[in-house]
């Protein structure tokens, strides 16, 4: 598109959002005012600081990691390897009596509450944030069990304590939370939030700690076992949004909510149907994909194959994948012939020797070697990339064959998509002046199509001639049975008011007011 841009990353440090607690009407709802910070060039620079950590900081969602057994409380590598540098929405809570104030991210993609501890002596990040002092609280109860949570830039670690937590205008008693004594890396040093308040299920809670919102329900502090998010995407508005416990505020949405069942407790996970670009199927999720509604992620994350198609359609510029182009060049015609012969698409890459087939999808062929472990790792990495490139090419070509395009057109299209694969650093720039020609991107949930316009999925940084625009889409690949997976972050939740209904184990979406 001729776009000129400096390296743009999806890791956007959005800092210091001073939260508000609004005087609630007499409707039995608990309201948490949320402030939003605009994307800022200086914060983007801060987000890129660090040497070895730089690559990890440059992706909005590096990888979600799932436990094999959600009931295993000893697992600490539970939540997500995700980077909160790009988080936009913050709120304020108080811990202890009298309340010690902390700014937190309300995160439906994790389940623990943690804040820095006064016993954090050796992490520089702790000196830039308020720290919880148990000696100053009359309601503190000692626990002492150790805890660690793994993120993309390292683990925060510490120990559990119990105390009262003030959320909005209510006080939740005896809440289990983590006092963080180690916060490694630039993420927690540069970021302006102090901690995380998880709103996921207990099944993914480190140490099997009871989430704060469970305690709200158990202690009878809210009317209904429901909470809802309204995220204001108006960059000029003073109010960033509102998190409501105990129900929904009818002023935050229009029409009726479309509800979909929670398919697996842990994350707020549900089944999603086809993804459309400009009203046309991408072909990848026509048979269904898993999705997660995640308030702790700013962007929309999905399978690389679809993200490449979306980026192609909107003219986003990624980094060329030589592996992808090599596969298309050497095997493109073969893949097309096999698809025309009605070979099973999932088995094609294994049949031509680029993947093994495990019954559900291709898997890369690991090289068994005891001679040189480093060589083995290097070969396996190359094999993984080749297998993934082949699988994406099959999806693209199958989709184009359905549109009766010629072999030459299909090969050209696949090569073009190789150019649009998001880079390992996560950046994909678009032409700020070209949004009028970009297509809508739509998601099918419970049979209803939810549209996002270019103005809603393109993120703008800066103003005037210095403005830069990035795609609101980033890649994540989770294999079956938990994938393919989409993470619907704030780009989606800002467009659609979202209800998290624990009582009926369902999630609802309606057009935000």
Automatic annotation (TrEMBL):
Keyword Protease: yes
Saposin B-type domain: residues covered: 319-359, 383-424
GO terms, biological process: lipid metabolic process; proteolysis
Active site residues per record: 107, 294
Domain of life: Eukaryota
Family matches, as InterPro entries: Aspartic_peptidase_A1, Aspartic_peptidase_AS, PEPTIDASE_A1, Peptidase_aspartic_dom_sf, Phytepsin, SapB_1, SapB_2, Saposin-like
Cysteine pairs bridged by disulfides in the record: 120-126, 285-289
Organism lineage string: Eukaryota, Viridiplantae, Streptophyta, Embryophyta, Tracheophyta
CDD domains xrefs: phytepsin
GO molecular function (one): aspartic-type endopeptidase activity
UniProt cross-references to Pfam families, sorted A to Z: Asp (PF00026), SapB_1 (PF05184), SapB_2 (PF03489)
UniProt-recorded name of the protein: Aspartic proteinase
Keywords (A to Z) from UniProt: Aspartyl protease, Disulfide bond, Glycoprotein, Hydrolase, Protease, Signal, Zymogen
Family indicated by similarity: Belongs to the peptidase A1 family.
Signal peptide boundaries: 1-23
Residue ranges occupied by any Peptidase A1 domain in the UniProt entry: 89-510
């Amino acid at each position: 598109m001729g776009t000129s841009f400096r390296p743009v990353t999806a890791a956007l440090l959005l800092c210091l959002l001073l939260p508000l607690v609004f005087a609630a009407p007499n409707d039995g709802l608990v309201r948490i005012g949320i402030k939003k910070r605009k994307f800022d060039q200086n914060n983007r620079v801060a987000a890129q600081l660090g040497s070895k950590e730089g690559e990890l900081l440059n992706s909005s969602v590096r990888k979600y990691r799932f436990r094999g057994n959600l009931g295993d409380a000893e697992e600490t590598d539970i939540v997500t390897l995700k980077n909160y540098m790009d988080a936009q929405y913050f709120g304020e809570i108080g811990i202890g009596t009298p309340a010690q104030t902390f700014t937190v991210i309300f995160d439906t993609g994790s389940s623990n509450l943690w804040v820095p501890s006064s016993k954090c002596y050796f992490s520089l990040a702790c000196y830039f944030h308020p720290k919880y002092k148990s000696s100053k609280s009359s309601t503190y109860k000692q626990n002492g069990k150790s805890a660690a949570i793994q993120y993309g830039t390292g683990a925060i670690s510490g120990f559990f304590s119990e105390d009262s937590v003030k959320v909005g205008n209510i006080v939740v008693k005896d809440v289990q939370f983590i006092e963080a004594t180690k916060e490694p890396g630039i993420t927690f040093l540069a970021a302006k939030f102090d901690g995380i308040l998880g709103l996921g299920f207990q099944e993914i809670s480190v140490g099997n700690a009871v989430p704060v919102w469970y305690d709200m329900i158990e202690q009878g502090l809210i009317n209904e076992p429901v909470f809802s998010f309204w995220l204001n995407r108006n960059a000029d508005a003073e109010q960033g949004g509102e998190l409501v416990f105990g129900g929904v505020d009818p002023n935050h949405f229009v029409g009726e909510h479309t509800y979909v069942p929670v398919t697996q407790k842990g994350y707020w996970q549900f089944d999603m149907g086809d993804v459309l670009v400009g009203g046309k199927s991408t072909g990848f999720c026509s048979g269904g994909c898993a999705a997660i509604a995640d308030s702790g992620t700013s962007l929309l994350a999905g399978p690389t194959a679809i993200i490449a198609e979306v980026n192609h359609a909107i003219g986003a510029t990624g980094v060329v994948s030589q592996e992808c182009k090599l596969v298309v060049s050497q095997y493109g015609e073969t893949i097309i012939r096999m698809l025309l012969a009605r070979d099973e698409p999932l088995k094609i890459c294994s049949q031509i020797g680029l993947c093994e087939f495990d019954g559900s999808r291709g898997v890369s062929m690991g090289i068994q070697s005891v001679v040189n472990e480093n060589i083995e790792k290097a070969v396996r990495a190359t094999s993984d990339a080749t297998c993934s490139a082949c699988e994406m090419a099959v999806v693209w070509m199958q989709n184009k064959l359905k549109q009766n395009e010629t072999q030459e057109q299909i090969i050209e299209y696949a090569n073009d998509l190789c150019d649009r694969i998001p880079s390992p650093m996560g950046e994909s720039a678009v032409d700020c002046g070209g949004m009028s020609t970009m297509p809508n991107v739509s998601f099918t949930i419970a049979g209803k199509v939810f549209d996002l316009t270019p103005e809603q999925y393109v993120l703008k940084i800066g103003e005037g001639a210095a403005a830069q625009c990035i795609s609101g889409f980033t890649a994540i690949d989770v294999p079956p049975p938990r994938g393919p997976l989409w993470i619907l972050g704030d780009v989606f939740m800002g467009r659609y008011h979202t209800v998290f209904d624990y009582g009926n184990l369902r999630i609802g979406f309606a057009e935000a007011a």
